[in-house]
Amino acid sequence: MSVVDILFACLGFVFLVFALWPSPLSPSQQRIMKLASNIVAVLLGAVFIVFGLNFFFNFIAIPHPPEGSPAAAFIGAMYSTGYLKLVKILEIAGGLLLVLPRLRCLGLIIIGAIVFNIACIHQFMFGGLKDPTVIFAILACLFLAYDAWKKCCGCGCCASCSCGCQSSSSASSCCSTESGSGCCGEKK
Q1: Could you read off the pLDDT of 72-95 as tens digits, one per residue?
Q2: Tens digit of pLDDT for each residue in 109-122?
Q3: Taking the domains of the chain in order of start, what are their residue ranges?
Q4: Residue from 63, 49, 52 nearest 85 by CA
Q5: Over the range 143-170, which residues count as b (16 or more CB within 10 Å of their CB) and which as e?
């Protein structure tokens, strides 16, 4: 077991702790969650920016799949048609959007679709999800999606608040005056 595997196992444990954390979070826990979300978003964004730019500038040597394998044929078809270039441009754009907190959900939509496809390619063509970078990308996307969902209490009650979430509040929602917290963890 390498240091990278241990690091990813620790990150997975942290994700599980935050995912199973009871609501609502205290102010100190909210700060930790926000910091963790920012760190994960920057790391995931950096991964996709670096690997997206690597396609155009080739500064990291990436091994090719074995010649004649289905994976080599698939990657070759994507490369020869120009589809891989589009995917790499989307990786760079999605990575940049992930780094910006106000556009993180849009970046997560783009990167989430790419991560799903990468996971499927690894599962079906490379014999399973063994690559730690792919595992990190999957866990990071799930964590960021959970964090975005958690900010809206999971009920769509982010109504007419200062953050611009644009939905209507109701008295029975978790963001009502009885709970004492508003959209995105704000105090009412």
Answers
A1: 999 999 999 999 999 999 999 999
A2: 999 999 999 999 99
A3: 3-151, 153-188
A4: 52
A5: bbeebeebbbbeeebbbebeeebebebe
